[in-house]
Amino acid sequence: MTRSPATPGTFSEPAKKSLGQNFLHERGVVDRIVQAVNPKPGERLVEIGPGQGAMTFPLLARHGALTAIEFDRDLLEPLTVQAAPHGALTLIHANVLDVDFTALADGAPIRLVGNLPYNLSSPILFHALDHAAAITDMHFMLQKEVVERMASGPGSKVYGRLSVMLQAYCEVTMLFVVGPGAFRPAPKVDSAVVRLTPRPAETIGVVDPRRFADIVRAAFGQRRKTLRNAVSTLMDSDAIAAAGIDPQLRAEQLSVADFVRLANHPVAA
Questions:
Q1: Does the reported pTM lie above 0.85?
Q2: CB of 177 closer than 8 Å to CB of 33
Q3: How many helices (H) and strands (E) does the chain have?
């Protein structure tokens, strides 16, 4: 069977499972996201993965200008053509993990928005975290389960590395849940929209970001182990106790502030 040639500027390609594509199409959901973002004149919006423009075009119509990062080459022409009546769209053809948000901001903070592919959501979140100083806020659609992990607190079964790392540097707010029917093709799980607002640098309190990340990773790497055993290659029981933390506790029992205190404790020479 021969496929008919696509009309230039139309979205003729189906969603690509290999790229984790699920195209948002429900206008009511889009309107709620645009309302949550609520762009103001002069702000710089950057969309990750515009797909078929469900959020792109309404944001353009509302704001007038938008930069979008899209990896799928087949979407570039139709996005360009169909965006023209709505506003000025600047497209960057790239893997978002290769985009330097700090360089893109160029001294003027950006606001990120996007329906993130489920298979890359955590790497994208950590990548954005690396550039938090250049970002005003982020509004993302992700798998509901991931958003619950992002926003959870100590004692929760889903509280983990992602929770601590994001909450140390950002205020995390789950906004609303989105059912599978809002997407084409429909995923097998619910989604949710989350807002992340980077904290002012002077309020974060992390002395050495790399050591903090190492401590959190080790602590949650083997959840069933006590801190004494889980972080033994980074600090001993005496150091843990000296930081004001019981070495017999497990990672999920510690608050974000506890992890900051633990990582900031001086390492013995």
A1: yes
A2: no
A3: 12, 9
For the segment 156-169, what is each residue's pLDDT rounded down to a tens digit?
999 999 999 999 99
DSSP class of 254: S
Q: For tokens 């950590």, what's the residue?
A: 126
**Which of 96, 87, 99, 82 is closest to 41 using CA atoms?**
87
Rounding to the nearest 10 degrees, give the CA dihedral for residues 127, 231, 262, 195: 30
Q: Where do runs of H (alpha helix) occur along the chain? A: 27-37, 56-63, 76-83, 101-105, 121-130, 144-151, 161-169, 201-204, 209-221, 227-230, 237-242, 256-264
Contact assessment for residue 8 and residue 77, using Cβ atoms and an 8 Å cutoff:
yes
Identity of the amino acid at 170: C
Between CA 216 and CA 227 the distance in angstroms is: 10
In this predicted model, what pLDDT tens digit does every residue of 23-72 receive, in sequence order? 677 899 999 999 999 999 999 999 999 988 889 999 999 999 999 999 88
